[in-house]
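Encode chain A's predicted structure.
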Amino acid sequence: MKKVFFLIMMSLFVSTSFLSCREKSEKEKLIEEMKDEGADIDVSEDGDKIKMETDDKSVKIKEDDGDTKIKVKTDNDDN
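Encoded structure for chain A:
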């Protein structure tokens, strides 16, 4: 019984440590990067759209039916 309890506790510990060290998604990285650059951040009321702008960069993130679409535009882009 001690062995089973020990195995359960160790598996919980290992799974918790992996979850806490997970790598950030591209969306989270972009949001953090734009905050560091001092961007103006607008979030839609339903939270599906995020628009971030600095003087030379514009990022739009849209979540639609579980899919995340990210558009990055810089001033030197022709698009």
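The first strand starts at residue 40 and ends at 43.
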